[in-house]
Automatic annotation (TrEMBL):
It is found in: Membrane. Coiled coil: none annotated. It comes from the Eukaryota. Signal peptide: none annotated. The lineage of its organism: Eukaryota, Viridiplantae, Streptophyta, Embryophyta, Tracheophyta. Belongs to the cytochrome P450 family. The keyword DNA damage does not apply. Its main location: membrane. The chain crosses the membrane at residues 12-31. It is a single-pass membrane protein. This is Cytochrome P450. GO terms for molecular function: heme binding; iron ion binding; monooxygenase activity; oxidoreductase activity, acting on paired donors, with incorporation or reduction of molecular oxygen. It comes from Fraxinus pennsylvanica.
Amino acid sequence: MLNFHQEIDEFLPFLFCFITLFFVWLLTKFLHRHTGKKNLPPSPPKLPILGNLHQLSALTHRSLQSLAKKYGPLMLLHFGNKPTLVISSANAAKEVMKTRDLIFANKPETRVARRFFYDGKDVSVAPYGEHWRQLKSICVLQLLSNKRVQSFHSIREEETTLLMEKVSSLISISSPLNLSDMFVLLANDVVCRSVLGRKCSEEGNGKQFLNLLREFSELLGNVTVGEFIPWLSWLDRVSGFKARVDRVANELDEFLEEVIQGCLDAGQDRSGKAVQNGSTENFLDILTAIYKENSSSVSIDRESIKGILLDVFAGGTDTTSTLLEWTMTELLRHPMIMKKLQKEARGKNLFLLLPLNTASSEDEVPL
């Protein structure tokens, strides 16, 4: 009996601690339930663990549209353990992206983006702060200014002319056209020449780089279970997804490191002309010049250069080719609009209807 009472006495402190912690947990849940949801937007019922993932189909945009009709233009969805604000109207988008832009300035982090973009050393996924502002300033003033974009007009015209010649050649022999592939190649060649100063589709090493870019774009757009349900992230390893991301990231890093070192070794200057061949200064020339200057006001490291280059490829290849593809699709779906466009083009004598060797410049195309 004495031993029993002694054991009870020893157990009581643990029991007291357990009961205390249990009531603290209940109080926290109660307060969160009655205060944490006051200002939250409407949200559909969610399942444990999955949240609202079960309500999304393969056509995510249509699923979100259907939910927005029921819950409004501003709704809260839970993708696993990730609360996500979904905007479905112009006014709500303006409120988020313009009126309260600083609150929403940081991008959601994903494991894939961190792996590809050197833990946020680029512009697209870097957290809002001094580093991001500095990189944005470099991109806006040095890479994407009107003067800089205009300096690449000859590249765009040359690649467009080559595309027209290829289309004309295939039409002359009644061969079918795959415009999707042609648009992808056009966008990649324009971006490669503007960014790296060379046409990747014509080089063995460059072709490998284009294949890496395709995998890069595909992996960036993939959604894995581990992103939304962290304790299931081991599935990314079992499926081979993580190994594939690591392989593509390593190969991209090796390629970009090689071209950066080659540019540094070539001894480029910043006069607007490349020393070697007199061609217009490309993005890589500008970034390596800033890297070599290493001034106190503006400085970047090699990983930032590689991150910015990947930003340009991610934002300038798939988006452009997809836009061109959908434009042609819509024209084919609306033949009356296509006829109207053809009539306008004939009236303006635009380069699309001129002989290929007399194609007019993009300056002559009215905007």
